[in-house]
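Today's session is about reading a structure prediction critically. Students often jump straight to the picture, but the first step is always the sequence itself: look for stretches that repeat, for charged clusters, for runs of hydrophobic residues. Only then move on to the predicted structure, which in these notes is written as discrete structure tokens rather than atom positions. Here is the chain we will use throughout the hour.
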Amino acid sequence: MEPDSGQLTVAVQRSAHAVVVRPEGELDRDGELPLREALEKAVAATPGLLVVDCAGLTFCDSAGLDLILGAREVVETAGGALVLAEPGPALSGLLEIAGAEEVLRVYGTLAEALAAGEH
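Below is the predicted structure for this chain, in token form.
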């Protein structure tokens, strides 16, 4: 049986000053568990900057955005920062409609997000 092409997978990469979480596939209420688990671990381990690299997302609904916003709140309460990189069309429209760009820092590339966190 072939895996669902929209199934969400998540890669995590750590560096000295950041944790990068890269979800790939469809982020919705039914498939958010891999990202939820990765964010929970990253939030507990982040040295200050948590970057959610959204370049691999093909879809995101309000449940996915709520998950990201909840993680941002936890990270900021602990004194860190959560930023988004490369939201692309799957997430950009949702960010705009929800007004989430008012509370989330969004960068066009992963490199820009990481560089902003070094300052």
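Discussion point for the tutorial: The beta strands are 9-14, 18-27, 49-53, 56-60, 81-85, 105-107.
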